[in-house]
Amino acid sequence: MKTAESVPSEVVQQVADYFSVLSEPMRLRILNVLRDGEKCVQDLVEATETSQANVSKHLKVMLQAGILNRRSEGTSAYYSVADDLIFELCNLVCDRLASRIEQQAKYFRAFTLSNKQ
């Protein structure tokens, strides 16, 4: 395994940039809608209950990051996820968060039960 010192700073920056794209809640909502397959902008606007300008702004960022694919059909633009690995990454994070929440719930239940005696 490589040490942190041997990784070029450009590579570290690209990884950080990729994660920063995923750090925006609306982008995660859009990705979740695209989990079911390709959607046009209007479908994404309706599913996320936000404006077309807002959806378009986030689509542009994800497209530039290589997370999404875009195709045009007539006057409509359709977006899809470029690599399904993004969903595996999201699943890993969600599973980790769920585990932490479940552990915290155990601590709260134990505390509550110990105080009822």
Give an overview in words.
- With 117 residues, the protein is mainly α.
- The protein has 2 domains: 1-82, Winged helix-like DNA-binding domain superfamily/Winged helix DNA-binding domain (Arc Repressor Mutant, subunit A); 84-117.
- The protein has helices spanning 9-21, 25-34, 41-48, 52-64, 85-115; strands at 39-40, 68-73, 76-81.
- Strands 1-3-2 form a 3-stranded antiparallel β-sheet.
- A hairpin with a 2-residue loop joins strand 2 and strand 3.
- Helix 3 (41-48) crosses helix 4 (52-64).
- The mean pLDDT is 91.
Main sheet? 3 strands, antiparallel
What is the CATH T-level topology of the largest domain? Arc Repressor Mutant, subunit A
Return the CATH class of the largest domain. Answer: Mainly Alpha
Question: Helix tally?
Answer: 5
Strand content: 5-15%
Poorly predicted regions are none
The total strand number stands at: 3
Shape: flat
Mean pLDDT: 91
Sketch the topology as an H/E string, one letter per element. Answer: HHEHHEEH
